[in-house]
Amino acid sequence: MTTTVSFTVATADGPRPASVAYERTGSGEPLLLLHGIGHHLRAWDPVTRILAAERDVIAVDLPGFGTSPALPDGVPYDPGTVGATLAAFCAELGLDRPHVAGNSLGGLLALELGRTEVVRSVTALSPAGFWTEAERRYAFGTLRAMRRSALALPVPLIERLSGTAAGRTALTSTIYARPGRRSSEAVVAETLALRGATGFHQTLEVGRGALFDEDVKGIPVTVAWGTRDRILLRRQGVRAKRVIPDARLVRLPGCGHVPMNDDPALVARVILDTSR
User: Fold this and answer.
1) Dihedral of CA 246/217/36/90: which sign?
2) Rounded to two decimals, what is the model's pTM?
3) Which residue ranges does the record assign to the AB hydrolase-1 domain (predicted)?
4) Which helix (H) or strand (E) holds 235?
């Protein structure tokens, strides 16, 4: 069941209220799960049950995505501010340095939490922030096209397309290497999440200057990249390894940009190995 918690976050303009929706399941050491831009916490459904056997799993809708409200007016969506919001969320829930796994935007935020010593381990799946300028423009152009398509399609058509393997491929093959594995209900839900993402534009705007260029020291870090990632090309993983020399760089064979759906067992194993 989705729960929403409200708290105060420090900003350049002083304390501001914020709210985050999340779902929690399992037992063990806490593990925070952060999705990518335009997605929602349901992105983690394929791996949640596996992870929950060993971890207290907290899957989050990032501010302005899923069912989480947007950040207050004037509060930027840059990694530092959103990272501080997530740190305040963890404090509100009493999470003492949880493990964290993030995908894409969530991977960048996970590394930010690791850099600021809020978490005890980081698994970053195709994290943003290791691109060249040309690669960033390509990725942002792809994401904007996905958003325009989601906004243009009537909901009944989205539902009809999601009912067939070919339709699910048309809607989600940019992010999944194996879109046929995604259920029709999940495809409808994530397409509607992309349509309704109030933080989408602001996140892309601040993302123009988002580069992760600081080492993450003192905790285990894994950077994993799908071999069939069509949004953030896998050579960016080599750059991530240069920035974070002690990180474990893992290849995810046959996986796309959102690998949790393409190979749940492999992704769960990578996350659990890091958090052990």
Assistant:
1) positive
2) 0.96
3) 31-269
4) none
Neighbours of 67 (CB within 10 A): 15
Task: Please provide residue 226's backbone torsions phi and psi, each rounded to the nearest 5 degrees.
Answer: -70, 140
Q: CB of 260 within 8 A of CB of 271?
A: no
Distance from C-alpha of 191 to C-alpha of 55, rounded to nearest angstrom: 29
Structure tokens at 223: 């950077």
Alpha helices in 6-130 (DSSP H): 45-52, 79-93, 105-115
Please tell me the total number of residues recorded for the chain in this structure.
Answer: 276
Q: Where are the beta strands (DSSP E) in 41-154?
A: 55-61, 99-103, 121-125
Under 8 Å CB-to-CB from 201, ≥6 apart: which residues?
none
The tokens describing 165, both together, are: 């393997």
Sole residue written with tokens 């705007």: 205
Best CA proximity match to 109, nearest among 17, 41, 32, 193: 32
Q: Please tell me the distance from the alpha carbon of residue 236 to that of residue 16, in angstroms, as a whole number.
A: 35
| Cβ–Cβ under 8 Å, residues 187 and 171 | yes
243 backbone dihedrals φ, ψ, rounded to 5°:
-75, -40
- CA–CA distance, 187 with 62 (Å, rounded to integer): 19
| Rg of the chain on CA atoms, in Å | 17
Residue 97: exposed, middle, or buried by beta-carbon count in 10 A (0-12, 13-18, 19+)?
A: middle
Q: Mean pLDDT by 10-residue block, N- to C-terminus, for the chain (276 residues)? A: 92 87 97 97 97 98 97 91 95 96 98 96 98 97 96 96 95 95 96 96 92 95 98 96 97 98 98 95
**Rounded CA gap, 152 and 173, in Å?**
18
**What backbone phi and psi angles, to 5 degrees, belong to 20?**
-135, 135
